[in-house]
Specification:
This protein is of the alpha+beta class. Helix content is 29%, strand content 24%.
Amino acid sequence: MSEEDINNKQPLADGAAPEQAVKPDDTPTVDKKKVVDITGEIKTAFLSYAMSVIVQRALPDAKDGLKPVHRRILYGMNGLGVYADQPFKKSARIVGEVMGKYHPHGDASIYDAMVRMAQPFSYRYPLVTGHGNFGSIDGDPPAAERYTEARMSKIAMEMLRDIQKDTVDFVDTYTAEEQEPVVLPAKFPALLVNGANGIAVGMATNIPPHNLGETIDATIALIDDPDITVAQLMQHLPGPDFPTGGVIMGRAGIRKAYETGRGAIINRGSVEIVEQDGGRHQIIITAVPYMVNKEQMFKHIAELARDKVIEGITGMIDESNMDGIRIVIDVRKDMQPEVVVNQLYHETALQTSFGIIMLALVDNAPRILPLKDLLQVYIDHQIDIITRRTRFDLKKAEERAHILEGLRIAIDNIDEIVHIIRTAPSDPEAIAAMEQRFGLDDIQANAIMEMKLRRLTGLQRSKIEEEYQQLEHTIADLKDILARHERVLQIIKDELTDMKAKYGDPRRSQIIDGDIDIEDEDLIPEEDIAVTLTTNGYIKRLPVETYRTQNRGGKGVIGMAVHSDDLVEQVVAMSTHEFVLLFTNKGRVYRIKGYHIPEASRTSKGLPVVNLVEMDKDEKVKALGRVPRDERSAYLFFVTVNGLVKRTSVSEFDMIRNNGKMAITLREGDELFDVKGTGGHDEIVIAGSNGKAVRFKEEDVRPMGRSAAGVKGFNVDGGRVVGTATSREGEFILALTAKGFGKKTPLSEYRLTNRGAKGVATVNVTARNGDLVALRAVRGDEDCLIITDKGTVIRISLANVSTYGRNTQGVRMINVDDDTTVAAMEIVEAGQADDEDLGPQAAEAADKPQE
């Protein structure tokens, strides 16, 4: 059969044989289809679907703060009598009641919503009290609904109070067999108190929970002053209050959300830092951010610690229990715990962002609601509730008073009433006779007919009269409420105040003013420290206050435990926020922040410096230098042990990578001794172990690059450089010898020469006082830290050191043993004197200068 024959083939009639073709004239007629615009049809259908999702599922109503499923759960529990003071009922029974009568969307959605309403970490004030496994903050799922039980919480009862008094509208349920409330009376602002979140079609809501007492205070403040500003409202309602507690960073995001209905806030977990024995620290997490899965956060932290994304964590354990959250994190001894906490905030869910979208339904229309608008919608709702409740109570009171009026007439004419009833052939005739005789209506006449004989006693008659008089007073009061708007507002305020007294509790979330983008350095207090370095490359830091000022000539205290082959070589005073430069025997320079140097105990040796910087195996730190932070320091002035000097711009050392940077080219047999910050017009003093010192102008040394070796600055004449100073540091020169003798000499006594000279005597070197080992420029009112090669440290006030001429031995500043020598000296700001006598061997003879 050809293609044309196939296309022209006629359809077969019903029941006809295949070979019996239907004639064209016998083809049945078919109604024509309706032609529609598919674009418009899809648009209309989608909008209908979208509005159904928005109104019936995803968004809460601004009046009671509930989505339909939550409202139906509470109303269903109310119908079952599952009150807070009644026994629990199986969750499956409650879910079945709600699904069968009110919510046609499946049992899973109902049970999930009810579970969340019972979780204290999800709802600020849970509306359901659960009995059994209702899930955990670790993400554990709840038990099946056939195992758990539930009932309304006490505060949930307040959501339904007065619902039987015609306070809200009712509509037919999906089966049209029952009716359900459009909203609940809600005796507190539930939308703000418990918050809400939901994703509709083309829109979403995310309202954080708030403290009940604060929310009520803000509502009352708005009732008292409708023109109140958001800033004034925030004095009552400072911000969200999450059920899990934690910390909210800053107030700008809160204020923006309250003013516009949109904003973002940063929510952090609560953290404590606890110091342990041995100088170690623990980080204790006592709260996690809202809606964060604690177990997942714990695992993520462990993974980041394992992968070295977060440095310094040596162990973790989750000690959380029924009393609260407690995650213990052990921090490595050389790490600043504040830095680890900052890394936790930036890398894990310990810090989250909460985007606030205050979107809710107002008369079935979605609206973005700033704080004042949201509270005003609730106030208007309560005005309607109080008004409708008052009308209901007034109607009931008037109906009862009307009946009592009839009973009063009957009692006053009881004999005649009895006669009418006895002589009447039937009830209708008796009722008609009473109505005609006493002007009663059907309601009053029927009440009289149903009245019992015992109501005729004198006591009962007085009770009827008393009840009638009370009703008259109640009716007058209810009419006054309806006539005076201010009374309605006062009732709202009184009821809110009562709610606060019954259910208010302290705030859980702390709100602090601060920048969320905190650098590690911002978390570390700035303090003055002393950094020491040994011959074998052990480095540590201690607060300068560790060494309290002692009398001159004392023995000092142990500042470091060293081995026989390891001596204290250098000490530098600086701030935890300053960079210390580490210059090596290869002429390279490394830098590290003061707070990155591990703080150790006074007697400990410290940490190998190779653990802090990426040096080569054969590289050794030979000098410590402090990066000057003041604007006057334009240059770094280098001095080697052989007396070579070099001046290089500070800007050359702004960026130093972990693997260091070339600082100076050292000649064979030479080492870097010291680096000073200079301003370009200072005077330089360099001293040698032979007791001589040279003074020259900084300008005599031209600026050079980093790779330069430098020029001759001081002719050490077979010795080695032991001290450097600049005129900016002070007007006195402090010299110290190997046996602990020292003195102050005016800088002016050192004549100004050209660089490269042999210098003039700065101390009279003898066998008694030893070689010159250190020289610094001072003001004269500072303290001096002196450390021996055995690790002993003394801190003395320079105010106790007299001023003497250049060619003298000085006075005893520290009493050292025969096998001990002074290793280094550093100048620090004056501190508190020690009350203890740590210098018993300060001989009177040492107080006199030796020529």
